[in-house]
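Known limitations

Files may contain more than one protein. Parsers should not assume a single record per file. Below, a two-record file is shown to illustrate correct handling: read the sequence, read the C-alpha coordinate line, then continue until end of file.
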Amino acid sequence: MEIIISKTKEELGKRAAAKGAALIRKALAEQGEANIIVATGASQFEMLEALVKEEVDWSKVTGFHLDEYIGLPATHPASFRKYLRERFVEKVPLKAFYYVTGDAGDPQAECARLGAIIKEKSIDVAFIGVGENGHLAFNDPPADFETQDPYLVVTLDEQCRKQQLGEGWFASFEEVPGQAISMSVNQILQSKAIICSIPDQRKAEAVKGTVESEITPMIPGTALQKHNATWLYLDEASASLLKRKR
Protein backbone atom coordinates (compact mmCIF):
# COMPACT_ATOMS: atom_id res chain seq x y z
CA MET A 1 0.00 0.00 0.00
CA GLU A 2 1.45 3.31 -1.09
CA ILE A 3 0.17 6.43 0.70
CA ILE A 4 0.05 9.77 -1.13
CA ILE A 5 -0.95 12.84 0.90
CA SER A 6 -2.14 16.04 -0.79
CA LYS A 7 -2.79 19.43 0.76
CA THR A 8 -6.38 19.59 -0.48
CA LYS A 9 -9.02 17.16 -1.69
CA GLU A 10 -8.97 18.87 -5.08
CA GLU A 11 -5.28 18.04 -5.44
CA LEU A 12 -6.01 14.54 -4.12
CA GLY A 13 -8.64 14.03 -6.81
CA LYS A 14 -6.36 15.15 -9.62
CA ARG A 15 -3.48 12.94 -8.47
CA ALA A 16 -5.68 9.89 -7.98
CA ALA A 17 -7.31 10.37 -11.38
CA ALA A 18 -3.95 10.84 -13.09
CA LYS A 19 -2.59 7.62 -11.61
CA GLY A 20 -5.74 5.69 -12.42
CA ALA A 21 -5.81 6.99 -15.99
CA ALA A 22 -2.16 6.03 -16.47
CA LEU A 23 -2.96 2.49 -15.34
CA ILE A 24 -5.92 2.32 -17.73
CA ARG A 25 -3.76 3.52 -20.62
CA LYS A 26 -1.17 0.88 -19.72
CA ALA A 27 -3.83 -1.84 -19.80
CA LEU A 28 -5.11 -0.57 -23.15
CA ALA A 29 -1.60 -0.57 -24.60
CA GLU A 30 -0.97 -4.14 -23.42
CA GLN A 31 -4.39 -5.71 -23.96
CA GLY A 32 -6.35 -3.47 -26.30
CA GLU A 33 -9.10 -3.10 -23.71
CA ALA A 34 -9.55 -2.38 -20.01
CA ASN A 35 -12.04 -3.11 -17.24
CA ILE A 36 -12.57 -0.83 -14.26
CA ILE A 37 -14.65 -0.56 -11.10
CA VAL A 38 -16.10 2.82 -10.15
CA ALA A 39 -17.22 3.91 -6.68
CA THR A 40 -19.55 6.71 -5.62
CA GLY A 41 -20.14 8.97 -2.63
CA ALA A 42 -18.83 12.38 -1.63
CA SER A 43 -15.26 11.06 -1.43
CA GLN A 44 -15.19 10.49 -5.19
CA PHE A 45 -16.41 13.91 -6.38
CA GLU A 46 -13.00 15.44 -7.09
CA MET A 47 -11.46 12.26 -8.46
CA LEU A 48 -14.26 11.63 -10.95
CA GLU A 49 -14.30 15.27 -12.03
CA ALA A 50 -10.62 14.94 -12.91
CA LEU A 51 -10.86 11.43 -14.34
CA VAL A 52 -13.35 12.33 -17.08
CA LYS A 53 -10.89 14.98 -18.30
CA GLU A 54 -8.03 12.50 -18.70
CA GLU A 55 -6.97 11.40 -22.18
CA VAL A 56 -8.16 7.80 -22.31
CA ASP A 57 -9.69 5.81 -25.16
CA TRP A 58 -12.86 5.20 -23.20
CA SER A 59 -14.46 3.34 -26.13
CA LYS A 60 -12.32 0.36 -25.14
CA VAL A 61 -13.12 0.55 -21.41
CA THR A 62 -15.83 -1.44 -19.62
CA GLY A 63 -17.01 -0.25 -16.22
CA PHE A 64 -18.58 -2.00 -13.24
CA HIS A 65 -20.70 -0.42 -10.53
CA LEU A 66 -19.57 -1.06 -6.94
CA ASP A 67 -22.81 -0.96 -4.95
CA GLU A 68 -26.41 0.27 -4.78
CA TYR A 69 -29.23 0.52 -2.28
CA ILE A 70 -31.93 -2.14 -2.46
CA GLY A 71 -35.33 -0.78 -3.44
CA LEU A 72 -34.15 2.69 -4.42
CA PRO A 73 -35.17 3.80 -7.93
CA ALA A 74 -32.53 5.20 -10.29
CA THR A 75 -34.36 8.55 -10.20
CA HIS A 76 -33.83 9.06 -6.44
CA PRO A 77 -31.27 11.78 -5.58
CA ALA A 78 -29.29 9.24 -3.52
CA SER A 79 -29.22 6.55 -6.21
CA PHE A 80 -25.68 5.60 -7.11
CA ARG A 81 -26.85 4.78 -10.62
CA LYS A 82 -27.97 8.40 -10.95
CA TYR A 83 -24.67 9.56 -9.44
CA LEU A 84 -22.56 7.53 -11.87
CA ARG A 85 -24.67 8.33 -14.89
CA GLU A 86 -24.40 12.07 -14.29
CA ARG A 87 -20.78 12.25 -13.10
CA PHE A 88 -19.12 9.58 -15.20
CA VAL A 89 -21.02 7.41 -17.67
CA GLU A 90 -22.62 10.28 -19.62
CA LYS A 91 -19.32 12.17 -19.77
CA VAL A 92 -17.14 9.50 -21.42
CA PRO A 93 -17.94 7.14 -24.34
CA LEU A 94 -17.49 3.81 -22.55
CA LYS A 95 -17.61 0.46 -24.33
CA ALA A 96 -20.06 -0.72 -21.67
CA PHE A 97 -21.09 -0.03 -18.09
CA TYR A 98 -22.79 -2.54 -15.81
CA TYR A 99 -24.99 -0.94 -13.18
CA VAL A 100 -26.24 -2.56 -10.00
CA THR A 101 -30.02 -2.48 -10.30
CA GLY A 102 -31.03 -2.18 -6.68
CA ASP A 103 -34.76 -2.11 -7.40
CA ALA A 104 -34.71 -5.11 -9.74
CA GLY A 105 -37.14 -6.98 -7.49
CA ASP A 106 -34.94 -9.98 -6.67
CA PRO A 107 -31.64 -8.81 -5.14
CA GLN A 108 -30.12 -12.31 -5.13
CA ALA A 109 -30.87 -12.72 -8.81
CA GLU A 110 -29.26 -9.35 -9.50
CA CYS A 111 -26.15 -10.47 -7.59
CA ALA A 112 -26.03 -13.61 -9.71
CA ARG A 113 -26.50 -11.65 -12.95
CA LEU A 114 -23.66 -9.25 -12.22
CA GLY A 115 -21.47 -11.99 -10.79
CA ALA A 116 -21.71 -14.01 -13.99
CA ILE A 117 -20.61 -10.98 -16.02
CA ILE A 118 -17.70 -9.86 -13.87
CA LYS A 119 -16.34 -13.40 -13.49
CA GLU A 120 -15.57 -13.29 -17.21
CA LYS A 121 -13.51 -10.11 -16.82
CA SER A 122 -10.15 -9.23 -15.32
CA ILE A 123 -10.38 -5.90 -13.53
CA ASP A 124 -7.46 -3.61 -14.32
CA VAL A 125 -8.24 -0.67 -12.02
CA ALA A 126 -10.68 -0.29 -9.12
CA PHE A 127 -11.53 3.25 -8.06
CA ILE A 128 -12.81 2.98 -4.48
CA GLY A 129 -13.08 4.78 -1.15
CA VAL A 130 -13.36 3.84 2.52
CA GLY A 131 -16.34 4.77 4.67
CA GLU A 132 -16.40 6.46 8.07
CA ASN A 133 -16.90 3.02 9.63
CA GLY A 134 -14.03 1.59 7.60
CA HIS A 135 -16.25 -0.16 5.08
CA LEU A 136 -15.18 -1.14 1.56
CA ALA A 137 -18.08 -0.66 -0.83
CA PHE A 138 -21.07 -1.42 1.43
CA ASN A 139 -19.27 -4.20 3.31
CA ASP A 140 -19.85 -2.83 6.79
CA PRO A 141 -18.13 -4.35 9.84
CA PRO A 142 -17.95 -7.20 10.45
CA ALA A 143 -17.36 -7.64 6.72
CA ASP A 144 -17.45 -11.01 5.02
CA PHE A 145 -13.81 -11.70 4.12
CA GLU A 146 -14.54 -15.29 3.11
CA THR A 147 -17.21 -15.23 0.40
CA GLN A 148 -16.01 -15.69 -3.16
CA ASP A 149 -19.28 -14.36 -4.58
CA PRO A 150 -18.58 -11.22 -6.60
CA TYR A 151 -21.74 -9.48 -5.34
CA LEU A 152 -23.80 -10.02 -2.21
CA VAL A 153 -26.73 -8.58 -0.29
CA VAL A 154 -25.58 -6.70 2.81
CA THR A 155 -27.23 -5.01 5.78
CA LEU A 156 -26.06 -1.47 6.46
CA ASP A 157 -25.04 -0.62 10.01
CA GLU A 158 -26.15 2.53 11.84
CA GLN A 159 -22.88 4.42 11.35
CA CYS A 160 -22.98 3.79 7.61
CA ARG A 161 -26.58 5.00 7.35
CA LYS A 162 -25.74 8.09 9.41
CA GLN A 163 -22.88 8.85 7.02
CA GLN A 164 -25.29 8.78 4.06
CA LEU A 165 -27.61 11.13 5.93
CA GLY A 166 -24.72 13.41 6.93
CA GLU A 167 -23.54 13.69 3.35
CA GLY A 168 -26.95 15.05 2.41
CA TRP A 169 -28.27 12.20 0.29
CA PHE A 170 -31.42 11.73 2.39
CA ALA A 171 -33.77 14.05 4.29
CA SER A 172 -34.01 11.80 7.36
CA PHE A 173 -32.33 8.76 8.86
CA GLU A 174 -35.52 6.73 8.38
CA GLU A 175 -35.30 7.26 4.62
CA VAL A 176 -31.85 5.62 4.36
CA PRO A 177 -32.34 2.03 3.13
CA GLY A 178 -31.25 -0.74 5.46
CA GLN A 179 -29.88 -3.05 2.77
CA ALA A 180 -27.79 -2.84 -0.38
CA ILE A 181 -26.17 -4.93 -3.07
CA SER A 182 -22.41 -4.65 -2.76
CA MET A 183 -19.36 -5.95 -4.54
CA SER A 184 -17.59 -8.31 -2.15
CA VAL A 185 -14.23 -7.59 -0.53
CA ASN A 186 -12.61 -10.53 -2.31
CA GLN A 187 -13.86 -9.33 -5.69
CA ILE A 188 -12.42 -5.86 -5.06
CA LEU A 189 -9.08 -7.40 -4.08
CA GLN A 190 -8.92 -9.32 -7.35
CA SER A 191 -8.36 -6.01 -9.16
CA LYS A 192 -4.86 -5.65 -10.60
CA ALA A 193 -4.62 -2.11 -9.20
CA ILE A 194 -6.65 -0.19 -6.61
CA ILE A 195 -6.94 3.60 -6.46
CA CYS A 196 -8.46 4.49 -3.08
CA SER A 197 -9.46 8.14 -2.55
CA ILE A 198 -10.27 9.21 1.02
CA PRO A 199 -10.54 12.95 1.72
CA ASP A 200 -11.92 14.88 4.73
CA GLN A 201 -11.38 15.00 8.48
CA ARG A 202 -14.44 12.83 9.14
CA LYS A 203 -12.56 9.91 7.56
CA ALA A 204 -9.41 10.33 9.69
CA GLU A 205 -10.29 7.57 12.17
CA ALA A 206 -11.14 5.18 9.34
CA VAL A 207 -7.86 5.99 7.60
CA LYS A 208 -5.89 5.38 10.78
CA GLY A 209 -7.63 2.04 11.26
CA THR A 210 -7.20 1.02 7.63
CA VAL A 211 -3.47 1.74 7.66
CA GLU A 212 -2.36 0.98 11.21
CA SER A 213 -4.66 -1.78 12.52
CA GLU A 214 -4.21 -5.49 12.01
CA ILE A 215 -6.27 -6.97 9.20
CA THR A 216 -9.73 -7.53 10.61
CA PRO A 217 -13.34 -7.75 9.35
CA MET A 218 -14.17 -5.16 12.01
CA ILE A 219 -12.24 -2.59 9.94
CA PRO A 220 -12.93 -3.78 6.38
CA GLY A 221 -10.47 -1.28 4.87
CA THR A 222 -7.60 -3.22 6.43
CA ALA A 223 -8.11 -5.83 3.70
CA LEU A 224 -6.30 -3.41 1.38
CA GLN A 225 -3.10 -4.22 3.25
CA LYS A 226 -3.16 -7.61 1.49
CA HIS A 227 -3.13 -6.03 -1.96
CA ASN A 228 0.29 -5.25 -3.43
CA ALA A 229 -0.82 -2.60 -5.92
CA THR A 230 -2.95 -0.22 -3.86
CA TRP A 231 -2.49 3.54 -3.87
CA LEU A 232 -4.15 5.36 -0.97
CA TYR A 233 -4.80 9.02 -1.77
CA LEU A 234 -5.40 11.21 1.28
CA ASP A 235 -5.60 14.90 2.03
CA GLU A 236 -4.01 16.48 5.09
CA ALA A 237 -7.28 16.24 7.01
CA SER A 238 -7.91 12.54 6.42
CA ALA A 239 -4.24 11.73 7.12
CA SER A 240 -4.12 13.80 10.31
CA LEU A 241 -4.22 10.85 12.76
CA LEU A 242 -1.58 8.68 11.09
CA LYS A 243 1.52 8.07 13.21
CA ARG A 244 3.76 8.05 10.16
CA LYS A 245 3.10 10.18 7.11
CA ARG A 246 4.38 8.25 4.10
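...continuing to the second record:
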Amino acid sequence: MAGAYDDRDGKIWMDGRLVEWRSAQVHILTHALHYASSVFEGERAYGGRIFLSRAHSERLHASARMIDFEIPWTVDQIEAAKAEVLAANGFKDAYVRAVAWRGSGEDMGVAARRNPVRLAIAAWEWGAYYGEAKMKGARLDVARWKRPSPETAPHQAKAAGLYMIATMSKHAAEAKGCSDAMMFDWRGYVAEATGANLFFVKDGEVHTPLPDCFLNGLTRQTVIGMLRERQIRVHERHIRPEELEGFEQCWLTGTAAEVTPVGEIGPWRFEVGALTREIAQAYERLVRA
Protein backbone atom coordinates (compact mmCIF):
# COMPACT_ATOMS: atom_id res chain seq x y z
CA MET A 1 0.00 0.00 0.00
CA ALA A 2 1.33 3.44 -0.91
CA GLY A 3 0.20 7.01 -1.30
CA ALA A 4 -1.17 9.60 1.11
CA TYR A 5 -2.48 8.13 4.34
CA ASP A 6 -5.96 9.57 3.79
CA ASP A 7 -6.30 8.17 0.27
CA ARG A 8 -5.90 4.38 0.33
CA ASP A 9 -7.93 1.26 -0.13
CA GLY A 10 -8.75 -0.85 2.91
CA LYS A 11 -10.67 -0.82 6.16
CA ILE A 12 -10.21 1.02 9.45
CA TRP A 13 -11.98 0.08 12.68
CA MET A 14 -13.70 3.16 14.06
CA ASP A 15 -15.95 3.38 17.12
CA GLY A 16 -17.01 -0.26 16.97
CA ARG A 17 -17.23 -0.98 13.26
CA LEU A 18 -15.13 -1.28 10.14
CA VAL A 19 -15.39 1.65 7.74
CA GLU A 20 -13.85 2.36 4.37
CA TRP A 21 -10.37 3.82 4.71
CA ARG A 22 -11.26 7.12 3.01
CA SER A 23 -14.36 7.52 5.21
CA ALA A 24 -12.48 7.36 8.53
CA GLN A 25 -12.74 11.07 9.28
CA VAL A 26 -13.40 13.43 12.20
CA HIS A 27 -14.91 16.90 12.47
CA ILE A 28 -12.66 19.98 12.38
CA LEU A 29 -13.83 20.88 15.92
CA THR A 30 -12.58 17.61 17.39
CA HIS A 31 -11.15 18.47 20.82
CA ALA A 32 -7.96 16.42 20.30
CA LEU A 33 -7.05 18.43 17.21
CA HIS A 34 -7.07 21.66 19.22
CA TYR A 35 -5.92 20.54 22.67
CA ALA A 36 -3.97 17.27 22.12
CA SER A 37 -6.40 15.15 24.16
CA SER A 38 -5.25 11.99 22.39
CA VAL A 39 -3.29 8.83 23.21
CA PHE A 40 -2.08 6.14 20.85
CA GLU A 41 -0.14 2.91 20.43
CA GLY A 42 2.21 1.78 17.69
CA GLU A 43 2.37 -2.00 17.30
CA ARG A 44 3.79 -4.51 14.82
CA ALA A 45 2.26 -7.71 13.58
CA TYR A 46 4.61 -10.49 12.50
CA GLY A 47 3.09 -13.42 10.65
CA GLY A 48 -0.39 -12.31 11.68
CA ARG A 49 0.42 -11.99 15.39
CA ILE A 50 0.87 -8.60 17.07
CA PHE A 51 3.91 -8.66 19.34
CA LEU A 52 2.97 -7.76 22.94
CA SER A 53 -0.52 -6.92 21.71
CA ARG A 54 -2.28 -7.06 25.05
CA ALA A 55 0.43 -5.02 26.77
CA HIS A 56 -0.10 -2.31 24.15
CA SER A 57 -3.88 -2.33 24.69
CA GLU A 58 -3.41 -2.13 28.45
CA ARG A 59 -1.00 0.78 28.06
CA LEU A 60 -3.50 2.59 25.81
CA HIS A 61 -6.01 2.45 28.66
CA ALA A 62 -3.37 3.56 31.18
CA SER A 63 -2.31 6.48 28.97
CA ALA A 64 -5.92 7.64 28.62
CA ARG A 65 -6.39 7.62 32.39
CA MET A 66 -3.18 9.63 32.81
CA ILE A 67 -4.59 12.40 30.64
CA ASP A 68 -7.98 12.20 32.34
CA PHE A 69 -10.33 10.16 30.21
CA GLU A 70 -11.61 6.60 30.06
CA ILE A 71 -11.76 4.55 26.87
CA PRO A 72 -15.27 3.04 26.52
CA TRP A 73 -13.95 -0.21 25.03
CA THR A 74 -12.33 -2.91 27.13
CA VAL A 75 -8.89 -4.36 26.52
CA ASP A 76 -10.56 -7.54 25.21
CA GLN A 77 -12.67 -5.50 22.78
CA ILE A 78 -9.58 -3.65 21.55
CA GLU A 79 -7.76 -6.94 21.06
CA ALA A 80 -10.66 -8.28 18.99
CA ALA A 81 -10.80 -5.07 16.95
CA LYS A 82 -7.10 -5.26 16.08
CA ALA A 83 -7.52 -8.84 14.87
CA GLU A 84 -10.54 -7.72 12.81
CA VAL A 85 -8.53 -4.95 11.16
CA LEU A 86 -5.67 -7.26 10.19
CA ALA A 87 -8.10 -9.82 8.77
CA ALA A 88 -10.17 -7.25 6.88
CA ASN A 89 -7.06 -5.88 5.16
CA GLY A 90 -5.41 -9.25 4.60
CA PHE A 91 -2.25 -8.28 6.49
CA LYS A 92 0.21 -10.65 8.15
CA ASP A 93 3.20 -8.33 8.61
CA ALA A 94 1.94 -4.84 9.39
CA TYR A 95 2.16 -1.80 11.61
CA VAL A 96 -0.94 -1.29 13.77
CA ARG A 97 -2.01 2.10 15.12
CA ALA A 98 -4.67 2.35 17.83
CA VAL A 99 -5.66 5.90 18.78
CA ALA A 100 -8.17 7.19 21.34
CA TRP A 101 -9.21 10.82 21.62
CA ARG A 102 -11.77 13.30 22.86
CA GLY A 103 -14.01 14.03 19.91
CA SER A 104 -16.35 16.88 19.05
CA GLY A 105 -19.29 17.50 21.36
CA GLU A 106 -20.84 20.11 23.59
CA ASP A 107 -17.49 21.51 24.79
CA MET A 108 -14.97 23.46 22.73
CA GLY A 109 -12.53 24.89 25.22
CA VAL A 110 -9.75 23.51 27.36
CA ALA A 111 -12.25 21.43 29.39
CA ALA A 112 -14.11 18.75 27.43
CA ARG A 113 -15.76 16.33 29.84
CA ARG A 114 -19.03 16.32 27.89
CA ASN A 115 -17.36 15.28 24.64
CA PRO A 116 -17.38 11.61 23.63
CA VAL A 117 -14.19 9.55 23.71
CA ARG A 118 -13.56 7.87 20.38
CA LEU A 119 -11.32 5.02 19.28
CA ALA A 120 -9.90 3.96 15.93
CA ILE A 121 -7.52 1.22 14.79
CA ALA A 122 -5.70 1.20 11.46
CA ALA A 123 -3.02 -1.04 9.99
CA TRP A 124 -0.67 -0.76 7.05
CA GLU A 125 2.35 -2.52 5.64
CA TRP A 126 5.52 -0.74 6.75
CA GLY A 127 9.14 -1.74 6.38
CA ALA A 128 12.18 -0.75 8.45
CA TYR A 129 11.54 2.58 10.18
CA TYR A 130 15.09 3.80 9.56
CA GLY A 131 15.54 2.15 6.15
CA GLU A 132 19.12 1.11 5.40
CA ALA A 133 20.23 2.30 8.85
CA LYS A 134 18.77 -0.95 10.17
CA MET A 135 21.97 -2.60 8.94
CA LYS A 136 24.52 0.20 8.57
CA GLY A 137 23.81 2.28 11.66
CA ALA A 138 21.67 5.38 11.95
CA ARG A 139 22.99 8.96 12.03
CA LEU A 140 21.46 11.03 14.83
CA ASP A 141 21.47 14.76 15.32
CA VAL A 142 21.45 16.32 18.80
CA ALA A 143 18.07 17.96 19.44
CA ARG A 144 17.77 21.50 20.75
CA TRP A 145 14.56 20.58 22.59
CA LYS A 146 14.70 18.72 25.88
CA ARG A 147 12.41 16.25 27.59
CA PRO A 148 10.60 18.18 30.33
CA SER A 149 10.41 17.52 34.05
CA PRO A 150 7.83 14.88 35.09
CA GLU A 151 6.15 17.69 37.02
CA THR A 152 5.39 19.27 33.64
CA ALA A 153 3.60 16.43 31.83
CA PRO A 154 2.54 12.78 32.40
CA HIS A 155 5.67 11.33 30.80
CA GLN A 156 4.58 7.68 31.01
CA ALA A 157 1.51 8.37 28.87
CA LYS A 158 1.92 7.70 25.17
CA ALA A 159 0.13 10.96 24.48
CA ALA A 160 0.07 12.97 21.26
CA GLY A 161 1.01 16.25 22.95
CA LEU A 162 4.35 14.88 24.16
CA TYR A 163 5.47 14.35 20.56
CA MET A 164 5.36 17.97 19.46
CA ILE A 165 9.03 18.61 20.30
CA ALA A 166 9.89 15.18 18.89
CA THR A 167 8.44 16.15 15.50
CA MET A 168 10.34 19.44 15.52
CA SER A 169 13.57 17.68 16.46
CA LYS A 170 13.19 15.02 13.80
CA HIS A 171 12.50 17.61 11.11
CA ALA A 172 15.66 19.48 12.08
CA ALA A 173 17.62 16.22 12.00
CA GLU A 174 16.33 15.23 8.58
CA ALA A 175 17.28 18.65 7.23
CA LYS A 176 20.87 17.75 8.17
CA GLY A 177 20.70 14.34 6.49
CA CYS A 178 20.24 12.45 9.76
CA SER A 179 17.68 9.75 10.52
CA ASP A 180 16.68 11.02 13.94
CA ALA A 181 17.78 13.12 16.91
CA MET A 182 18.91 12.34 20.43
CA MET A 183 17.18 14.37 23.12
CA PHE A 184 18.56 15.37 26.50
CA ASP A 185 16.26 15.91 29.47
CA TRP A 186 15.72 19.18 31.31
CA ARG A 187 18.65 18.39 33.63
CA GLY A 188 21.06 17.74 30.75
CA TYR A 189 21.11 13.94 30.98
CA VAL A 190 20.81 11.75 27.87
CA ALA A 191 17.12 10.84 27.43
CA GLU A 192 15.96 9.19 24.19
CA ALA A 193 15.53 9.65 20.45
CA THR A 194 12.34 11.25 19.14
CA GLY A 195 10.43 7.96 19.13
CA ALA A 196 12.84 5.32 20.43
CA ASN A 197 14.88 4.45 23.51
CA LEU A 198 18.69 4.42 23.59
CA PHE A 199 21.22 1.78 24.66
CA PHE A 200 25.01 2.05 24.89
CA VAL A 201 27.76 -0.56 25.28
CA LYS A 202 31.06 -0.22 27.12
CA ASP A 203 33.43 -3.03 28.16
CA GLY A 204 30.78 -5.68 27.55
CA GLU A 205 28.15 -3.99 29.75
CA VAL A 206 25.07 -2.07 28.67
CA HIS A 207 23.99 1.38 29.83
CA THR A 208 20.58 2.87 29.15
CA PRO A 209 19.01 6.13 30.37
CA LEU A 210 16.70 5.87 33.36
CA PRO A 211 13.16 6.55 32.08
CA ASP A 212 12.16 8.99 34.80
CA CYS A 213 10.93 11.70 32.41
CA PHE A 214 10.19 9.80 29.18
CA LEU A 215 8.35 6.66 28.08
CA ASN A 216 9.67 3.32 29.32
CA GLY A 217 9.10 1.56 26.01
CA LEU A 218 7.80 -1.99 25.78
CA THR A 219 10.59 -2.86 23.35
CA ARG A 220 13.08 -1.31 25.78
CA GLN A 221 11.77 -3.54 28.56
CA THR A 222 11.89 -6.58 26.28
CA VAL A 223 15.50 -5.94 25.27
CA ILE A 224 16.60 -5.42 28.88
CA GLY A 225 15.08 -8.81 29.67
CA MET A 226 16.93 -10.39 26.73
CA LEU A 227 20.24 -8.93 27.90
CA ARG A 228 19.79 -10.13 31.46
CA GLU A 229 18.89 -13.62 30.25
CA ARG A 230 22.31 -13.60 28.59
CA GLN A 231 23.95 -12.59 31.88
CA ILE A 232 24.90 -9.19 30.44
CA ARG A 233 24.93 -6.49 33.05
CA VAL A 234 22.50 -3.64 32.36
CA HIS A 235 22.86 -0.26 34.06
CA GLU A 236 19.66 1.82 34.04
CA ARG A 237 20.96 5.20 35.12
CA HIS A 238 21.45 8.88 34.37
CA ILE A 239 24.00 9.30 31.57
CA ARG A 240 25.94 12.55 31.21
CA PRO A 241 26.86 13.97 27.76
CA GLU A 242 30.59 13.67 28.42
CA GLU A 243 30.20 9.90 28.81
CA LEU A 244 29.13 9.42 25.19
CA GLU A 245 32.71 9.58 23.96
CA GLY A 246 33.59 6.45 25.93
CA PHE A 247 30.80 4.20 24.65
CA GLU A 248 31.70 1.68 21.94
CA GLN A 249 28.28 0.71 20.56
CA CYS A 250 24.81 2.21 20.50
CA TRP A 251 21.38 1.09 19.39
CA LEU A 252 17.77 2.25 19.39
CA THR A 253 14.71 0.28 20.47
CA GLY A 254 11.04 0.81 19.71
CA THR A 255 8.09 -0.90 18.09
CA ALA A 256 8.75 0.97 14.85
CA ALA A 257 12.55 1.04 15.22
CA GLU A 258 12.73 -2.56 16.49
CA VAL A 259 16.49 -2.82 17.30
CA THR A 260 18.42 -0.40 15.08
CA PRO A 261 22.17 0.21 15.41
CA VAL A 262 23.48 3.76 15.67
CA GLY A 263 26.70 4.80 13.94
CA GLU A 264 26.89 8.37 15.13
CA ILE A 265 25.20 10.94 17.35
CA GLY A 266 26.37 14.46 16.61
CA PRO A 267 30.17 14.39 17.14
CA TRP A 268 30.21 10.92 18.75
CA ARG A 269 30.90 7.74 16.75
CA PHE A 270 30.00 4.11 17.48
CA GLU A 271 30.74 0.77 15.86
CA VAL A 272 27.97 -1.57 14.76
CA GLY A 273 29.43 -4.27 16.99
CA ALA A 274 28.80 -7.91 17.78
CA LEU A 275 26.47 -7.32 20.73
CA THR A 276 24.33 -4.89 18.77
CA ARG A 277 23.95 -7.38 15.93
CA GLU A 278 23.29 -10.26 18.33
CA ILE A 279 20.48 -8.43 20.10
CA ALA A 280 18.96 -7.22 16.82
CA GLN A 281 18.92 -10.76 15.45
CA ALA A 282 17.62 -12.23 18.69
CA TYR A 283 14.81 -9.68 18.79
CA GLU A 284 13.86 -10.56 15.22
CA ARG A 285 13.66 -14.24 16.17
CA LEU A 286 11.61 -13.43 19.27
CA VAL A 287 8.92 -11.39 17.53
CA ARG A 288 8.50 -14.07 14.86
CA ALA A 289 8.54 -17.04 17.23
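Parsers that stop after the first record will miss the second one. For reference, the second record is described as follows. The domain at 11-124 is CATH 3.30.470.10 (D-amino Acid Aminotransferase; Chain A, domain 1).
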